[in-house]
Amino acid sequence: MSERKQIEISKEKIEEQDKFIELLHRTNEDYFNKSGSRKTYSLVTYGCQMNEHDSEMLISMLESMGYARSISEDKADLVIYNTCAVRENAELKVYGNLGHLKSVKKNRPDMKIAVCGCMMQQPHVVEEIKKKYRHVDLIFGTHNLYKFPQLLSDTFGREKMLVDVWDVDGEVVEGLKSDRKFSVKAFVNIMYGCNNFCTYCIVPYTRGRERSRLPEDIIFEIKELVSNGVKEVTLLGQNVNSYGKTLEESKKITFAQLLREVNEIEGIERIRFMTSHPKDISDEVIYAIRDCDKVCEFLHLPFQSGSTALLKKMNRHYTKEDYLNIIKKAKSEIPNIAFSTDIMIGFPGETDADIDDTIDVCEETRYDSAFTFIYSKRTGTPAARMENQIPEDVKHQRFDRVLEVVNRISAEKNEEYDSKIVEVLVEGSSKKYSDIMTGKTRQNKTVNFTGGGEDLVGKIVNILIKETRSFSLNGELVEIIR
Ligand code: 5AD
Ligand code: SF4
Is it the case that residue 405 has pLDDT exceeding 60? Predict the structure, then answer.
């Protein structure tokens, strides 16, 4: 199908949903007029930024349907779990919550319960919910999010659970509105799915094959965001460095070219992106970060393990040396670059010597922040069938060893900022104290500061750092730059 045709179809599909939005809006207004209170929703999101962004779109639809946010899950008229399948823990929480809602729904039979997201793309999960959690009203997947108003509307007057989960290689549907959480920064999907099949990872099975959005659609969306006051965008994809590969020949551009095009958009202050796969990051991407004034000096580059042998078993397609060479190149081309990463502990067959390699990479790169994960067995992935699964207590000991190194380095990196002036994009007031404002540096460091108020939101300011902590910096306003 041609891409232009695809956009036209998207428009039709979205417009079709407007009917259902209006229908539910009317029903909810009637309810409000009669009862004096609004129908409410509670939406819980698990997992990555993609899910966060999907939830923003769900919220936008819910609010157009006249739902108000509920203060408590048990009191909500509609509860939605947007689930994650990457690790078992998040899955168990969803089952636990669904179990709890069973008794709540007994007392409030009109309550609607919907589950969506990556977990629902796994047939065994859907079967489990159908069998053990019959009080659920609606199950939908990751590719038919735009159809939510219709699906929700179909649950009314229906006894049986409604299940609408598509094949994983769903199309790209353009034009969905989203309720962005921050007025200052926004996520923008540039691609969906993943073709890499790292042997531990469920994502290629739940989010399907890689599909890139058209550059003009991405640029259009960002321009619209900017006109609504957004100053920072994060370009999202499972593997942004392979952006463009699925585009028609005449539209093909690389990720580096996309960065350069986004950099030309007037009014945007900062550009970030995630996630980068070390096997695909090209020198051109590093040069684009170096050359583009709005692209922040920050690279999230998951390495998972420092052991070349384990990386092979993980199907990652790079060695410890390849990875460190990329870091070296980035450090030499981009002054002040900060790094973050994902590290996995306890992959099948892992030895203490493999952990030494992982610690080596941490010491050599010196990450500003690192997300450490204990390997979690995912049904259907090759690693789940591998021999030499690591016992839980060994995983935890190794995890603690790596965490200590990672935390020490982060704290040391932050100490380097003591008494320095840093450039911060102000995001809002701190959660705890209203007289303390908060924002981020270009290197993605959280800075809390005194001396300014809400009028600074969206502004770029200079802050003098007075105190450094492991995960944040505290300081004082020096001047407003713009
Ligand atoms: N177990 C633990 N961590 C995982 N990740 C992906 N799959 C698993 C798994 N089965 C981690 C990887 C990835 C991050 C988003 O989640 O480190 O980079
Ligand atoms: Fe999972 Fe690997 Fe794809 Fe990342 S690149 S989503 S870890 S399969």
Answer: yes
